[in-house]
Design goal:
The structure is a single chain. By secondary structure, this protein is α+β, with helices and mostly antiparallel strands. α2 packs parallel to α4 and α3 packs antiparallel against α4. The longest helix has 24 residues. The chain is built from 13 helices and four strands. It is globular and about 65 Å long. Helices cover 51% and strands 9% of the residues.
């Protein structure tokens, strides 16, 4: 019973640490004090407009409350922080919304007054027309063979990894799905060998091969992008999706990777944050070890469950 009580107390401490960080750094109670918080709200609402316009039959006059909020938030943002890519995206979505409303016979008076002629002239469409045949042509790869050819690598060659390869992988991961297109994920390329060594020591799950890791990426997620208690786990979801995209993008370049678990106690998390000088509003999601394959090497078998074990039809 004593062991159970200790485990329960430790679990509560860890849960409280995560909950306090989310309470303190998310945008649950503060959506306007800084550009990142207000920008997240603007991106979320702009994407709502885009989604409405992308429906097979857009409902005339939909999203009036969202439009009113965007008019207010974009005005506040530009007055405090100036116009930037975030407000341009929002203005483009609003211009497309207004033009669609006019075509449907439902113009939005306040929106027409808010937008300028430049907004309409420079607006990018909130939706993109695509051709299924072209999409299929560009996506013709044997993904099962590609995905099954990847293994977690713990034997790396001494060949250095080009920084361009890391950047290309992050660029490929830009299209990773994220809740309401908020794009909370960040990637840190740890290039300082001394810092890399210290961070790997804190992680602790790389004994026996950590000294051979050529490059280290650390994926984080920005808590200010999340706005409600219901989104308390969303940073892990979005950050994990982004991390997997990066790993597959590196695999496509012929590079080996190993996901290094970051399910750690608060003490380790705090230590890594200090070493990285990480903004307090970001959560560490996972480490990714990156390197070239040696000519011959071994990997863990890591036998997988089959689709019959995983898939349930209801």
């Amino acid at each position: 019973m004593l062991a159970v009580a200790k485990s329960f107390a430790k679990l509560n401490r860890n849960l409280f640490y995560d909950a306090f960080r989310y309470f303190r750094f998310s945008s649950m109670f503060d959506r306007e004090s800084e550009s990142a918080r207000l920008g997240a709200a603007i991106k979320m609402d702009a994407h709502r407009i885009e989604k409405g316009l992308a429906l097979p039959q857009s409902r005339p006059g939909f999203g009036q409350d969202v439009v009113a909020r965007l008019i207010r938030d974009v005005g506040v943002y530009e007055a405090r922080f100036g116009a930037d890519r975030i407000t341009r995206i929002a203005r483009s979505a609003l211009a497309d919304y207004e033009q669609t409303g006019r075509e449907q016979g439902v113009p939005h008076g306040a929106l027409g007054q808010f937008l300028t002629s430049d907004d309409f002239a420079d607006a990018e469409s909130a939706t993109i027309r695509l051709d299924a045949k072209a999409i299929r042509a560009r996506s013709q790869i044997d993904f099962t063979a590609f995905a099954h050819s990847r293994h977690s690598l713990r034997q790396f060659s001494a060949e250095p990894v080009s920084p361009d390869a890391i950047e290309a992988a992050v660029r490929a991961a830009e299209r990773t799905p994220s809740v309401c297109n908020r794009q909370s994920a960040k990637a840190y390329h740890i290039v300082d060998p001394s810092l890399r060594k210290q961070l790997l020591e804190v992680q602790g799950g790389n004994r026996g091969f950590g000294d051979d890791i050529a490059e280290l990426l650390i994926i984080t997620s920005e808590l200010r992008n999340f706005v409600s208690a219901a989104e308390r786990y969303q940073c892990w979801i979005d950050g994990g999706l982004f991390a997997m995209s990066v790993v597959y993008a590196l695999h496509a370049q012929g590079l080996g990777t190993c996901m290094l678990n970051w399910s750690v106690d608060p003490s380790r998390d705090i230590t890594a944050r200090k070493l990285m000088n990480l903004p307090p509003t970001q959560n560490i999601i996972v480490y990714i070890a990156v390197g070239h394959y040696p000519e011959n090497f071994s990997v863990a078998t890591s036998t997988r469950l089959g689709a019959d074990d995983i898939l349930t039809r209801l």
